[in-house]
Write a structure and sequence with these properties.
Order of helices and strands: EEHHHHHHHHEEH
Helix content: 55-70%
Low-confidence stretches: 202-230
Strand content: under 5%
Number of helices: 9
Number of strands: 4
Strand order of the largest sheet: 1-2
Mean pLDDT: 79
Largest sheet: 2 strands, antiparallel
């Protein structure tokens, strides 16, 4: 992005074509018009290789996660909302609790609520596949082998723009998760994810399933630290 902080829509886009929007930062190439009187050091080569390696890590771990979720029934039992949760009232009820900073009860603290289930389903089955698809569409070899997959996105430049927005949404999803872990009790949540043991008041639960271990980090920010003082 730093090498060309301009985004377009369609098949082609360059320094001489109108932009859809642009990021107001200096570029690492002097031919890119940014309005700044200087350019940043060009790190496009090694950073692109690192980007591709990270993408393969995401693809491989994502495939393993989906296979595990289907094999163990994690998606069906922990992510897909129950019929009672597939209503607007269920969503607004959860959101209102967060707005009013209402402390979740024990059942809510160890399971996904309707909003969390919807968020995970969107990230796993929409955003991650879309970020992989749009990333592949930026490859000239993929474009020549599967032109229809690129044309369905509106062209290579459209794919690059979509790839940017989806990456931003995934980054915000990660930031919110980290903030929730810190606000809900960092040590207790990390212990739950690593050891499967969660301290809640005077009760220590030591038989957490994978779903409840993951749900343990998703307690609302309003939940106070539950770990007993030493």
């Amino acid at each position: 992005m730093i090498s060309h902080p301009r985004f377009y829509w369609g098949e082609t886009g360059n320094d001489l074509t109108p932009t859809l929007f642009k990021i107001p930062i200096p570029a690492s190439r002097n031919l890119v018009p940014t309005g700044y009187g200087y350019v940043l050091p060009d790190q496009n080569g090694w950073s692109r290789y690192l980007h591709f390696q990270a993408a393969w890590a995401v693809v491989l771990t994502g495939i393993l996660y989906v296979l595990w979720g289907l094999w163990t029934g994690h998606f069906r039992s922990n992510l897909f909302p129950a019929p009672a949760d597939r209503t607007w009232r269920a969503f607004t009820g959860v959101i209102s609790k967060h707005i009013r900073l209402k402390r979740p009860d024990e059942a809510d603290a160890f399971s996904y609520n309707a909003v969390q289930r919807a968020a995970y389903l969107i990230v796993i089955f929409i955003l991650f596949p879309l970020v992989i698809w749009t990333g592949l569409a930026l490859s000239p070899s993929f474009n020549s082998a599967f032109p229809l997959a690129v044309n369905m996105l509106g062209g290579r430049q459209s794919a690059r723009t979509l790839h940017f927005f989806v990456s931003v949404f995934l980054f915000l999803f990660l930031v919110v998760h980290l903030a929730m872990v810190v606000l809900a009790g960092f040590m207790n949540r990390m212990r739950a994810m690593v050891t499967g043991r969660m301290i809640t008041g005077t009760l220590t639960t030591g038989t957490m399933t994978a779903g409840t271990m993951i749900a343990a980090i998703d307690v609302a920010p309003s939940a106070a630290q539950t770990e007993e003082p030493a």
